[in-house]
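If you are new to this repository, start here. Below is one unmodified record pulled from the training split, so you can see the exact layout before writing a loader.
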Amino acid sequence: MDRDFPSSTTSTSSSTASDAESASPHLDQLFNNLCREYSSCVHEAGRVLPPEWTMPELVRTMFGDEAIQLGFLTDAYYDVMLCGIRSWGCEELLNLLDLIHYVF
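And here is the target side for that same chain:
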């Protein structure tokens, strides 16, 4: 029997936890940059956020909390940087703003 197996599992899980902790600041910065770009799109489209919403809240509502992951945010960020107001994220955001303004 190999008695080293449990310790290697512990080592792997602590390494994974360490990776997750170190990725968090990068994820937060990427999310903030994406929100800043979406704010520019909203401004460029001549729209305004309702006073009860912030851009981070609107983005989280649009994507859903489960989508706030590094790979997804990276794709969304590059899309908005390449396509600007015509990016899928900006289009979805503007559609959501239209819906919010229509309902309220």
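Two things worth knowing about this chain: The chain has one domain: 23-103. Residues 23-103 form one domain.
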